[in-house]
């Protein structure tokens, strides 16, 4: 597995953090480390073998069908030439007795280093595979797990945190379903989130989140462990997914629960069954049956699209890295430990303090999400290199 490969290197997290430079810079992002991580990554023999292989393939193509080589091979070739130029210039700066020439060489060294860094960044962008869902909007579902009322209270806090994070990122946040508990918690809720790179940044939030604290309902001061689950579903467009209306069974019923006069008086709630798959979506959030139907369709499309993507992933033999699981206490991606004022993401072994500030859904949460994305980019690069090595050895 790629996670095992990444964790086997003591320096891998430093490499992952350096991937922040390979994406377009954002003013809101705090970079975790600087250029040395990128230099170390290019020093890996596996990456050097991969780039050599790309250039060899390009040479074979030119000698055979005379077709143009790949952009990656061209970048690798430019990088090698620029590194050779840098070596020659550094020797000139060390050995030439003419002071003016040495100063000129030192200036040229700086320009060469900048060009090399840019070429390496471009190579990394070519190595990181893009996903068709990265530019998608998304449906987020939150569900209380183990822990009774305390789990529901934590679910409500998490839903609020993501709503505030959407505002922090200038994304649209539209509540689709909201099922509160009796004491102010949340049994289940879903929301549509739309904005620049919303799914690419939120996709790693899917999974089981665990909280450890003394619940408000606890009389003896004991620390309890509870869980809730987040599911992140990419929102398809009309090209990605088409639903045959004849395959839908649409039912209407009276809304239930809190909601004012319209509850239990009009058939505003909508339930949609996709007959071939058995997937169901419901919505009673709005007073209007038409609006509820539109939202239920939106949820259904996201669920069906997610099923399609998972099926494609299985066919490619790439396991889904984040699963909802059984919502048990042991299956967790992140722990929120209130007595120790600490949030720990177990996938990248990263902890941050100031948990109340983290739950505001602003800079601390954003830094955690960026770190997860950078680590995933690192793994993607390592997977490309590993697959190339395996192919070469066959």
UniProtKB/TrEMBL annotation:
GO terms for cellular component: mitochondrion. Keywords: Coiled coil, Methylation, Mitochondrion, Protein biosynthesis, Transit peptide. InterPro entries: PCRF, Pep_chain_release_fac_I, Pep_chain_release_fac_I_sf, Prokaryotic/Mito_RF. The keyword DNA-binding does not apply. GO terms for molecular function: translation release factor activity, codon specific. It is found in: Mitochondrion. Residues 254-270 form the Prokaryotic-type class I peptide chain release factors domain. It comes from the Eukaryota. Residues 72-122 form a coiled coil. The keyword Glycosyltransferase does not apply. One of its GO terms (biological process) is mitochondrial translational termination. Pfam families: PCRF (PF03462), RF-1 (PF00472). Mitochondrial peptide chain release factor that directs the termination of translation in response to the peptide chain termination codons UAA and UAG. Belongs to the prokaryotic/mitochondrial release factor family. This is Peptide chain release factor 1-like, mitochondrial. The gene is MTRF1L.
